[in-house]
Amino acid sequence: MTQLNTASARGKLPLREYLERMTLEEKIAQLIQLAVPFFEGASDDGQITGPMASLGIDGHTVRNAGSVLGLAGAQETINVQRMHLAHNRLGIPLLTMADIVHGFKTIFPVPLAIGCSWDLALAERSAEIAALEAAVSGIHVTFAPMVDLVRDPRWGRVMESTGEDPYLNALFARAFVRGFQGDDLAGNPDRVAACVKHFAAYGAAEAGRDYNTVDVSERQLREFYLPAYKAALDEGCEMVMTSFNTVDGIPATGNVPLMRRLLREEWGFDGVLISDWGAVKELIAHGVAADEREAALKAMKAGVDIEMMTSCYAKHLSGLIAAGEVDEALIDEAVLRILELKDKLGLFEKPYRAADPEREREVVFCDAHRAAALELARRSCVLLKNDGVLPLAAAQRIAVIGPFARSGDLLGPWSWTGSQDAVVRLSEAIRAKAAAPDAVTVADGCGIEAAPAEAQWAAAAAAAQSADVIVLALGEHSDMSGEAGCRSDIRLPQAQLELVRRIKALVPGKPVVAVLFNGRPLDLHGVIDEADAVLEAWFPGSEGGVAVADLLYGDANPSGRLTMSFPYSVGQVPVYYNAFNTGRPQGAPDAQVRYVSQYLDIPNEPLLPFGFGLSYAAFEYGEAALSADTMTPDAPLTVTVRVTNTGSVAGIETVQLYVRDVSGEVVRPVKELKAFRQLELQPGESAEVAFELNERQLRYYHSDLSHTSDAGAFVAMVGPNSRDVTPLPFALVK
Ligand code: GLC
Q1: How large is the average pLDDT for residues 615-637?
Q2: pTM score, whole prediction
Q3: What number does the ligand 1 atom closest to the CA of 244 have?
Q4: Which option is the CATH number for 377-552: 3.40.50.300, 3.40.50.1700, 3.90.380.10, 3.30.1490.20?
């Protein structure tokens, strides 16, 4: 492609000179992002059909559009770019953007699963591989990472987040941005620009219903929801995407306080801000714009540079300027940011960048990438229960029963270029482990939601009766997660719960292992109480079937730790570990029996807490200790604990450090994750972990939004998860 890039380079003008030479119409076109069919050279041959023409988009607009959404494929992008450059008067290259959220063709586990690995290096590597596969396929920008903090598993998009903790989400946000972008976008065309989303607090949608109202205090916003976006930007993330929801009564896409004052002025972000799909026009439905003209006005005033998929800008910006309602300087600012991004990507000199059909064939879905996906899938699964039936033995006769026994639907809802055909099915992967292939029988047992036909049940019953161990492969269809994939009932579908009951009744006492393929924390009643072991596999990606079989047979030892609480039931939601104590906490020494914060019918605690996960090894924690019982701003503390693997196999333990501010100027969470360390220990091996704890880690947003710490009583807590911790009181003295 070097020749192609060289031949096309026309010599770049100073960016401001493009601006001076551009007509107003050409400037406005730069702010428009269109889908693939609009573009000549695309496989749809860019025909502008009726529906598109109704968007007010004409051929001239397309030829001058700033960017395209969802175009992929080296040759396809080369064709479209070539046609675009041939028609664009000033030779301004087209920017290609797409959703590469957890892999391009090599699909990694969904981000909620990656979060459960607690391994930032593997997360960064997954983004680097995704970037390479996308870049050689002609993509310049990915709409990722999604860093929305989540607390409500009814919401379909929790699978796209790394969970409920702001500190951990911020670390993963940085890792993903580093992996996608590297440190030299212009010099390294094998990386892509990242776009952190969805700004802001999309995960706080009321009732877990997508696109629903978000109404949190500014303090909650800053304490919990904003840190991960800020971390992504501090890591150099080039773009931000607006969220569909309101923030304090104003839709994010038209929200001047959020976008102009906080994002651009307070945080100093001067990169490209893109609306989410249709969010500019949705200002009308929200009820803050009377029509598309006012929607364009409000989005431009909020600083939205690119309008994705609607045409309010295309139709109305020139009229708004002519009427003096929008200053052309705002358009110039937006255009300049877009040109600067194209320049950072080196597109003026190399408009085809890394697009290369030959390299595409070499690197996309190559063995090395699949090996990385396998490793991350092994590390992302979480062992939730094991009454000794795992690991399996090769000599055992196994019945693999359930709708996911033979399913390729392991990629999750954001894998638009991944191929289910290439996914090794769980049943195949288990058969490859068994001593005798015919020792493994397979039956669907039921549909994901469909009750079994009698023949289906008969086959499942026969398989169960012939086996030593039953592996139930259960879960949600990937369409039951992801965007607009919200569920009010977060149990497994009834057909699958019935299958579990019937199998247990048919062969009482026979070991049953449940493997779950799903995109959210579930209400596990009917599964975890029936099965002898439960492995949460999430949507584990292209290599997920192999990874799960490796874990079931002990060729890999489960090490995942939950980054989102599993509720006791949906009635508990939202339930999260870093909650406030309330004035009537349950279980307090002087607590009354009835008049405390509790339910009459279920416990307050989640079924499985943040940070939880089991292993085939056994990790014993020694006496935790503090280096002193007081801290000052200049004299941090050290928290030490020794961990020993008293088991018979090697394993990875994630030692977690939490802190509680016993009394603040505002209420403070009962605990907050402040650090963690992963230890790989051989049988009998032990290691001492020493965490530094300093005053900066005790800072929080006060009622006046100052971010400072207060002298007073604190408790450090260390342990294997957010529940089973050792308290270590100390004081901050100022
Ligand atoms: C969708 C999603 C967003 C995605 C965009 C482009 O509506 O909300 O995450 O990046 O559209 O596909």
Answers
A1: 98
A2: 0.97
A3: 8
A4: 3.40.50.1700
